[in-house]
UniProtKB/TrEMBL annotation:
Biological process terms in GO annotation: methylation
Pfam families: CheR
SMART domains (alphabetical): MeTrc (SM00138)
Protein name: Chemotaxis protein-glutamate O-methyltransferase
PROSITE patterns attached to this UniProt entry: CHER
Organism: Salmonella enterica
Classification lineage: Bacteria, Pseudomonadati, Pseudomonadota, Gammaproteobacteria, Enterobacterales
Length: 200
């Protein structure tokens, strides 16, 4: 199963919460984008963290995964249509993207300095164990759970528990409710969850 509906800064209210959370943490801030699709979500996370924390080596890292290797190839390439970047400020566009010229007019590419902070890998959320470099300060798993049955959703959420640091955040999609599914997570904000206190 793959879901490829995605956009830069989709569900925009999540990103200021992420920035604020990242500013309060020490050491390397690590985020997992668990359904990265064609890369818009992980690059939005990367832009948010670069704006909030700067670009010092070792300050933050985004691990991005998807089951679909084809969409991951597009994500790795970091090439998008300029028209897809309407949600970015002119400063962000200039700072983090290069504009294509000639035959590449109308296209932009993620600058290498930003891309270096994003690592792409194939991960199937239905597998019993995830080969990911956790634990993470935040996990984005947005708009993918709606395609699974309730038992599968519960299994996936429980597999996230050891991969999230204490006081880490789990970001869900707008139509998803995780706290109804498992006791391990409680609601912290609009579609933002944290480990329940007795689990953290």
């Amino acid at each position: 199963l793959t879901t490829n509906l995605t956009a830069f800064f989709r569900e925009a209210h999540h990103f200021p919460i992420l920035a604020e959370h990242a500013r309060r943490r020490h050491g390397e801030y690590r985020v997992w984008s668990a359904a990265a699709s064609t890369g818009e979500e992980p690059y939005s996370i990367a832009i948010t963290l670069a704006d909030a924390l700067g670009m010092a080596p070792g300050r933050w890292k985004v691990f991005a995964s998807d089951i679909d290797t084809e969409v991951l190839e597009k994500a790795r390439s970091g090439i998008y249509r300029l028209s897809e970047l309407k949600t970015l400020s002119p400063q962000q566009l200039q700072r983090y993207f290069m504009r294509g010229t000639g035959p590449h007019e109308g296209l932009v590419r993620v600058r290498q300095e930003l891309a270096n902070y994003v690592e792409f890998s194939s991960v199937n959320l239905l597998e019993k164990q995830y080969n990911v470099p956790g634990p993470f300060d935040a996990i984005f798993c947005r708009n993918v759970m709606i395609y699974f049955d309730k038992t599968t959703q519960e299994d996936i959420l429980r597999r996230f528990v050891p991969l999230l640091k204490p006081d880490g955040l789990l970001f869900a999609g707008h139509s998803e409710n995780f706290s109804n599914l498992v006791r391990e997570f409680s609601l912290r904000g609009q579609t933002v969850y944290a480990l329940s206190k007795d689990k953290a």
